[in-house]
Amino acid sequence: MRKVVMLFLLFAVCLALNSGCASIISDSKYSVSIGSEPEGAEYNIIDKKGNVVYKGTTPDLTPPLKAGAGFFSAADYKVTFKKEGYEERTVALNQKLDNWYLFGNLIFGGLIGYLIVDPITGAMWELKDTHVDLTTGVISDLPAKNEQRVVLLDQVPQELRPRMVRIH
């Protein structure tokens, strides 16, 4: 009987050590939406070693890219956009802390999820969609539905300015 209890406890500890909320619910790889204005720009995604990991034409959805690059380190990708008649642009592919890492570990993963599992697997990071306006040079993440964004007036394309609303 004592052996069974010890095996059960060992199993429970192993299970706890191998779980983190973002690792369970979220993912450590993301397909990223890449867009440009105008559409049809060729782009390359380049990793921190300078290797081209993906090539495509906007608009496009990439194959899954690793979000992490080691313990507590986010992946570092650059995206180079080229289209005839426009200046070439290179931007960072932005990442953020995954919400499941930030809030889910409060419930499921605890300190082990925060400090060990999710940082090792890279699931603590989420890659963000990217959109570049080649006509004005404005670089932005694609906004989520109902998301509001604060930008400088000179970052707003002329054709969109009549649609702007002043907030007091």
Tell me what the structure shows:
- The chain has helices spanning 2-17, 21-25, 99-107, 110-121; strands spanning 29-30, 33-37, 42-46, 52-57, 60-61, 65-66, 77-82, 89-93, 95-97, 125-127, 130-133, 139-141.
- It has 168 residues and is an alpha+beta fold.
- The protein has a single domain, classed as Immunoglobulin-like, CATH 2.60.40.
- Helix 3 runs antiparallel to helix 4 (110-121).
- The longest helix has 16 residues, at 2-17.
- The protein is elongated, with a radius of gyration of 21 Å.
Q: Would you kindly provide a brief summary of this structure?
A:
Helices cover 25% and strands 27% of the residues. It is of the alpha+beta class and 168 residues long.
Poorly predicted runs are 14-23
Strand neighbour order, sheet with most strands:
5-2-11-12
Largest sheet: 4 strands, mixed
Q: Could you give the order of the helices and strands?
A: HHEEEEEEEEEHHEEE
CATH topology: Immunoglobulin-like
Category by helix and strand content: alpha+beta
Q: What is the count of distinct domains?
A: 1
Report the C-alpha radius of gyration, rounded: 21 Å
Proportion of residues in extended strands: 25-35%
Shape: elongated
Q: Name the assembly state.
A: single chain
By DSSP (H or I, 4+ residues per run), the number of helices equals: 4
CATH architectural category? Sandwich
Look at the structure and give the mean pLDDT. Answer: 74
Task: List the defining traits of the structure above.
168 residues; alpha+beta; 4 helices; elongated
